[in-house]
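Deliverable D2.4 — example input (structure tokens):
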């Protein structure tokens, strides 16, 4: 009788287990969890994100075990070409035709805003790791959008504040003429004014500009001590090179407001030494960042950017959420993401706010002198850890409709 009872119990447990597994599979929108990396694969931001973001996403899937809830995890990639129409249309195809459950990277604020709107209408999740404009968690916030890695508020209050503290009181901006550049100029200008400095003007340039002569002449004529570069990637690099070729006044310095290790690698320590940089992550922070970065380097032959590390973290967070709630239903996943703290090699004790901002520490870094660099890609001194609560715009200042004002 005992043997019979035990057999019946085991059979019952097997049925229940099979039923539970079937239930879990039934909670997925199709036979796989699909993640789309929408990035710049061919343009001026491709070193920042690009193929490196695709590699990082696939590493996250591999480290998670390749499946979730018993089903495979797939990674798709597409080039948005830094065009809003291309990015939005690709997002629509992914979400409506191809069954993509989450989109990550984005890497262009104008594209990210459009993609966030596309995803919100279809109740799908975007975990942005590359676009910076604070519009994404203010006027254009969405219940399905996560701003993961950095934003223009954090950059302004890191680099901008440090440069003002070092004596740079008068500023003129060279600004990329799209939402990212506008936000970075606005946020940094506010920091300068709050510290008692002055903003003497700005010159806006086209995205992926071919000629920086006119804006640099305007900057020189302004007499400003600091030329703030409210641009990034190839635009920032080309502006610095053009300034070196033209020669700025002796009392003028350039401040890159969004600079990546890959930019320092491109420009060289001789040209960038002493520059302050604000980043969310750096490959040489600790044992965990170094170990992951070595694995990334083996695949790409380059050290990762904070966008690459953020993309790895974003995919990991998403898969953990799906596993925890037993479904890829966006509302359930977002509820779990906002209810729990998150830790991985990107950051510790991170939390997701009502406005979609993922809050974590940031780092004020300073570029080393050539003689201080010990090994390739050893570019930064860590000058300050900016605490999470200080790094990002406070909720009390939020313009997001999802935030309840008290």
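Example output (designed residues):
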């Amino acid at each position: 009788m005992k043997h019979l009872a035990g057999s019946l119990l085991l059979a019952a447990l097997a049925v229940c287990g099979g039923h539970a597994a079937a239930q879990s599979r039934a909670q997925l929108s199709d036979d796989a969890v699909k993640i789309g990396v929408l990035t710049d694969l061919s343009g001026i931001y491709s070193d920042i994100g690009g193929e490196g973001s695709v590699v990082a996403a696939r590493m996250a899937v591999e480290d998670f075990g390749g499946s979730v809830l018993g089903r495979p995890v797939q990674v798709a990639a597409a080039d948005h070409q830094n065009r809003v129409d291309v990015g939005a249309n690709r997002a629509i195809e992914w979400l409506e035709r191809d069954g993509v459950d989450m989109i990550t990277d984005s890497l262009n604020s104008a594209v990210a805003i459009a993609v966030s709107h596309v995803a919100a209408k279809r109740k799908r999740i975007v975990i942005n790791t590359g676009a910076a404009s604070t519009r994404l968690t203010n006027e254009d916030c969405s219940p399905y959008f996560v701003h993961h890695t950095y934003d223009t508020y954090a950059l302004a209050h890191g680099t901008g504040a440090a440069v003002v503290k070092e004596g740079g009181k008068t500023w003129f901006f060279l600004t990329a003429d799209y939402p990212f550049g506008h936000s970075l100029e606005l946020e940094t200008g506010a920091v300068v004014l709050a510290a008692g400095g002055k903003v003497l003007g700005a010159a806006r340039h086209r995205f992926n500009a071919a000629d920086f002569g006119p804006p640099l002449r305007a900057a020189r004529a302004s007499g400003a001590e600091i030329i703030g570069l409210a641009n990034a990637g190839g635009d920032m690099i080309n502006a610095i090179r053009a300034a070196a070729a033209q020669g700025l006044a002796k009392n003028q310095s350039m401040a890159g407001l969004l600079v990546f290790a890959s930019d320092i690698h491109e420009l060289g320590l001789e040209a960038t030494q002493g520059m302050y940089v604000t980043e969310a992550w750096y490959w040489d922070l600790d044992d965990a960042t170094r170990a992951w970065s070595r694995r990334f380097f083996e695949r790409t032959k380059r050290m990762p950017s904070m966008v690459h590390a953020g993309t790895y973290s974003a995919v990991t967070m998403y898969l953990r959420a799906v596993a925890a709630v037993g479904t890829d239903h966006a509302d359930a996943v977002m509820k779990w993401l906002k209810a729990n703290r998150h830790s991985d090699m990107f950051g510790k004790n991170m939390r997701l706010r009502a406005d979609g901002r993922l809050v974590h520490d940031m780092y004020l870094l300073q570029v080393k002198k050539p003689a201080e660099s010990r090994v390739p890609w050893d570019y930064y001194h860590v000058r300050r850890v900016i605490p999470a609560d200080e790094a990002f715009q406070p909720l009390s200042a939020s313009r997001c409709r999802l935030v309840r004002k008290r």
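The domain at 155-279+363-390 is CATH 3.40.50.2300 (Rossmann fold).
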